[in-house]
Design goal:
By secondary structure, the chain is α/β, with parallel strands linked by helices. The protein has helices at about 5, 25-30, 35-40, 60-70, 90-100, 125-140, 160-170, 185-195, 215-225, 230-240, 255-280, 295-305, and strands at about 15-20, 45-50, 75-80, 105-110, 145-150, 175-180, 205-210, 285-290. About 40% of the residues are buried. The structure holds flavin-adenine dinucleotide.
Length: about 300
């Protein structure tokens, strides 16, 4: 059985993230013949990961997508898993179910803290505790990825302390890092040097958020992560502004459609150049958050240096 940890010794990895759709129709779109998964397989990814709602409310669909990937045998399935709100006992039960389905790669996360959340006495609090638990209870049965935040996690005391906790994840047995979206390349370069200076030697698989739609780009940057949008990205949003605006109050639907298309085109080019810059830094992998949009992702991969 191939292992992502070993693949990093052989090449620069390409991987994708999917989210489990909320509806049966959405699931069908992903899983049917010629659907999203089939389109992504054609790009020869080393693995495909599937997100997990904090608290596990979508675990059935998450498992269905991952089992399909496992059964198709075209690439490796990786589950995201969040520990907040769970005791060690429930975590072990949930993780055993993944092993029972042949899924032995996990991205071990804390999860965002839900509003009004009151932690139970035995609940796990941090990803460090999750990594520790997995290694103690399951030994080497799982390959463990952990999240890293090049701009610092939004709740971190300081970026230095955030890096120290990342080092703890390595020391507790994590195998590689998948980074949070980061459009700010200067910040990424600083962080990449800083983690290496801090003794973090794990492979860094860079999470790339494609720029495809202005509302979701702004939402993604600001809703959970408060990440920096560089001037060039702001200019793309500004040139193709589609939101209520006192200066042009009555734009036609046609004009809005034109701007959305123009945004996507410029965004694809922006994403391609970002991937190429990451590759030129010698990162260990590119992990594209696909937003389940296989057509745009196919273009990005084919036109970037990933397919060179
Ligand atoms: P942690 O590493 O636990 O860090 C959380 C905060 O606590 C940080 O500020 C850190 O500095 C601090 N900290 C860490 N350890 C300690 C410690 N031992 N003592 C004190 N402070 C500490 N969320 C989902 O719900 N579902 C998903 O599928 C999902 N996918 C993701 C994929 C990627 C690639 C990434 C990077 C994130 C993803 N997230 C997902 C979001 C993630 O759950 C949130 O960012 C969450 O708020 C933090 O998770 P973490 O594992 O980085 O937390």
């Amino acid at each position: 059985m191939p292992n992502i940890k070993d693949l990093f010794n052989q090449k620069t990895l390409l991987s994708f993230e999917l989210f489990p759709p909320k509806t049966d129709r959405g699931m069908e779109k992903i899983c049917r013949e010629g659907g999203t998964l089939d389109q992504l397989y054609r790009l020869n990814p080393d693995y495909i990961s599937c997100t997990y709602h904090v608290g596990g409310s979508n675990v059935e669909r998450n498992m269905a997508v991952l089992s399909k990937i496992q059964n198709d045998g075209r690439t490796l399935p990786v589950t995201h898993f969040t520990c907040i709100g769970n005791t060690p006992k429930t975590v072990c039960g949930l993780l055993q179910a993944y092993l029972d389905h042949g899924i032995h790669h996990v991205l071990a996360l804390r999860g965002d803290i839900p509003l009004g959340y009151e932690p139970g006495k035995e609940d796990l609090r941090y990803a460090t505790e999750l990594v520790d638990l997995i290694r103690r209870e399951f030994g080497d049965k799982f390959t463990i990825a952990v999240g890293g935040s090049p701009e610092g996690h939004i709740q971190c005391r300081s970026i230095q302390s955030d890096i120290e906790y990342l080092k703890q994840k390595q020391d507790l047995g994590a195998d590689y890092i998948i980074t949070q979206l980061c459009w700010d390349m200067d910040q990424f370069k600083w962080w990449y040097d800083a983690i290496r200076s801090a003794g973090i030697t794990l492979p860094v698989d860079v999470g790339v958020m494609p720029v495809l739609d202005s509302a979701s780009t702004i939402n993604m940057a600001l809703s959970h992560n408060a990440c920096v949008m560089p001037r060039a990205l702001c200019e793309i949003i500004s040139r193709n502004w589609i939101f209520p605006n006192v200066f042009t109050p009555e734009e036609s639907e046609e004009e809005i459609r034109r701007k959305k298309d123009a945004f996507m085109e410029e965004g694809i080019q922006y994403t391609i150049s970002q991937i190429n810059e990451y590759l030129s830094l010698g990162v260990d992998g590119i992990h594209l958050f696909t937003l389940n949009k296989a057509d745009a992702v196919t273009r990005i991969i084919k036109e970037s240096n990933l397919s060179a």
